[in-house]
Design brief:
Blueprint: H1 10-25, H2 34-39, H3 48-70, H4 74-105, H5 112-127, H6 131-138, H7 152-171, H8 174-189, H9 207-221, H10 230-246, H11 255-271, H12 283-291, H13 293-312, H14 327-363
Helix pairs in contact: 1-3, 1-11, 1-12, 1-13, 3-7, 3-9, 3-11, 4-5, 4-7, 4-13, 4-14, 6-7, 8-9, 9-11, 10-11, 13-14
Length: 364
């Protein structure tokens, strides 16, 4: 087994920054920017979510393997892990879901009681972290709720993953665990999971998560290092990102499965902790994006929605804006950045520390 790796791997933070940039870009259509539709014809930025899944699989898989190696008590293993996840995820997710609900009640922003009536049930699904179940049940006719909750389906899938994976890790030997993970991948590989319009299986695509756990197993056991030629991995990373964003446009039935494979390739390179993806002078910005990627994922849709209202609502005194203008993008970026920083400093980081302290007491 390798020596313990650092809690924060800089290359993984770079990949988080790339993932959140892609995820945000996938929702810019709501700003009605003219150049976006042209750029988006053969570019599929929604794959940022699959990159997040692969990263989560690696990070959580690595954590569970380390916890299993130092815990002989089953109760300590499960409770310590779930305590950390609860404090890491739920406060921020619940806060911004409630913020979005409050926004729907603000005067002149949305179209009154009818809209709110559609939003309240959706709010309940998201607070329970089963948004993916909700969307799978109503697809492809989902409607009547808040666009602010669109991103919450992936949080639901990850939370369900966090509930199931500890049992699989604890009760399985290494070979059984690997077999189960490859089984999860194989069951989905040739199944059509189109993006537009999505089918129900779209909201349960767990193959990237499984790939991430397999990478964690490999990183935990491998006794070799990749060659040091950084340029090789920069080029490989660029090719993998390009392949991820383009392959869904090919019409291949297995394109979503291939996206997961390409995402796993990126995470495998990043998992070696060799700073292959170091961003030079842009590194502080990239690391900031990576560290706050969870908050940005939660707040970017409210920021985009509020920006659209500011720029278009005549009740607020707005004039129709030039679709070629970058102003809405600047406003949305500023709102999302400020909200993410607020979330990181006042919610995410302090409560994550609380969860870790409680988990440490449980394990000792």
């Amino acid at each position: 087994m390798n020596a313990a790796m650092p809690k924060v791997i800089r290359d993984i933070q770079v990949l988080r920054a790339i993932a959140i940039t892609l995820a945000i870009f996938s929702h810019l259509s709501w700003l009605k920017i003219a150049w976006y539709s042209q750029l988006n014809k053969n570019f599929n930025p929604w794959v940022g979510v699959d990159l997040f899944f692969a990263i989560s699989g690696f990070v959580i898989g690595r954590e569970l393997l380390e916890m299993k190696s130092r815990n002989e008590r089953k109760a300590a293993f499960f409770s310590a892990f779930w305590i950390k996840r609860v404090f890491r995820i739920l406060p921020s997710a619940w806060f911004w879901a409630t913020f979005a609900l409050a926004a729907t009640m603000a005067p002149y922003v949305f179209d009154g009681a009818g809209y709110l009536a559609g939003t309240l049930p959706e709010y309940g699904w998201m607070m329970l972290q089963i948004g993916n179940v909700h969307y799978a049940m109503c697809t492809p006719t989902c409607g009547g709720g808040s666009v602010f909750y669109t991103a919450y389906w992936s949080l639901g899938l990850e939370e369900q993953f966090y509930l199931v994976l500890p049992f699989v890790v604890w009760f399985s030997g290494r070979n059984t665990l690997v077999g189960i993970l490859f089984g999860v991948i194989a069951l989905q590989f040739f199944v059509g999971r189109p993006h537009d319009p999505p089918n129900a299986l779209w909201y349960f695509r767990a193959d990237a998560l499984a790939w991430g756990v397999l990478i964690a197993i490999a990183a935990n056991e491998a006794n070799f290092q990749l060659p040091k030629q950084r340029i090789m991995y920069v080029i490989a990373g660029a090719i993998l990102i390009a392949a991820m964003t383009v392959v869904p446009s090919t019409g291949l039935g297995m394109s979503t499965a291939l996206v997961a494979v390409f995402a796993a390739g990126l995470v495998y390179i990043g998992s070696r902790n060799r700073n292959y993806f170091e961003a030079g002078r842009l590194s502080p910005i990239v690391q900031w994006l990576g560290a706050r990627s969870f908050g940005l994922y939660l707040v970017h849709l409210p920021a985009i929605g509020l920006t659209h209202w500011i720029m278009t609502n005549p009740l607020a005194g707005a004039e129709p804006y030039d679709a070629l203008s970058l102003l809405p993008l600047v406003i949305a970026s500023a709102l999302a950045g400020c909200a993410a920083e607020f979330n990181y400093r006042l919610l995410e980081r302090p409560l994550r520390k609380v969860g870790r302290r409680i988990a440490q007491r449980i394990e000792t």
